[in-house]
Amino acid sequence: MIPRQLCTLTGCAAGRSRHATSKATSFDLAPAEQLLSRLRKRAHPYQVAFAGLDLRIDENVFFCPQHTKTSAIMLACLEEIELPREARALDVFTGSGVFALYLAKRGCRALGVDILPAAVRCAQHNAAANDLADRASFVLGDGLSGVIDEGPFDVVTACPPLLPGRPKHPLEGALFDERLGATHRFIADLSRVLAANGRAYLFLSDVFARVGNDLEALARAAGLVSRTAFARDVGYEVYSVIELRHAG
To answer: Are 244 and 219 in contact (CB under 8 A)?
Structure first.
């Protein structure tokens, strides 16, 4: 059954369809529903080994690479990029802190930001547990708005919610975002924190375009240029890592 709070924004009718509809396009809610069901049943905290890190995942913190492909795809992209010596890195929507810690392990000075206090505490624990507390720190904030004054950053990573919908629980907030506004705000504010020669890596689903968003137009309006650095079709969606940099 599709949660009512998701149907109110996606236009689907509970009990009628597993597809959320926006104008002439649709996307399948079933994978997200199944994932949330698994996570709600799981005992917390639990340990996950990923990207050479030993991570503790606390209650209401979203990170489950054993059930999703998103983290592995982002990691595969980041493994291919060159990093300046002592690069300053920012990870937005940091959750468990995994990508801030991965970048710190590669020699960056990393900052992670998340809107959930539980996520910030979890990430701080994981930094200490992996002997990276001297290279990675974590702060509470809503996207880039809380770290504008901390820039510039050479590398910025972001894994925002991928599906439009109104979350009613912290775990749902990792997957669903009303009108995908967090992604819009990230793109709009990015130039304010990105170093002159910096690069940002934004994880997106093709649902972003399917529901009417124009990534290239949003980037241009923010003074940025975009390219697809990595893409993978997982059947129900196409996941991409989008590289963003300053125009000109």
So the answer is: yes
Q: Which helix (H) or strand (E) holds 210?
A: helix 207-210
Task: List residues bridging with 245 in a β-sheet.
Answer: 225
**Which tens digits make up the pLDDT trace of 131-160?**
999 999 999 999 999 899 999 999 999 999
Q: Where are the beta strands (DSSP E) in the chain?
A: 19-22, 25-28, 46-50, 53-57, 88-92, 109-114, 136-140, 153-158, 163-164, 176-177, 194-205, 224-233, 238-246
Pairing of strands 25-28, 176-177: unpaired
Contact 83, 108 (CB under 8 A): yes
Taking the model in full, what pTM does it have?
0.90
> What is the spatial distance between Cα 146 and Cα 148, in angstroms, rounded to a whole number?
6
Taking the C-alpha atoms of residue 155 and residue 137, their distance in angstroms, rounded to an integer, is 15
Q: How far is residue 242's CA from residue 199's CA, in Å, rounded to a whole number?
A: 10
First to last CA, the chain: 49
Q: If we measure between CA atoms, which residue out of 175, 179, 240, 174 comes closest to residue 205?
A: 240
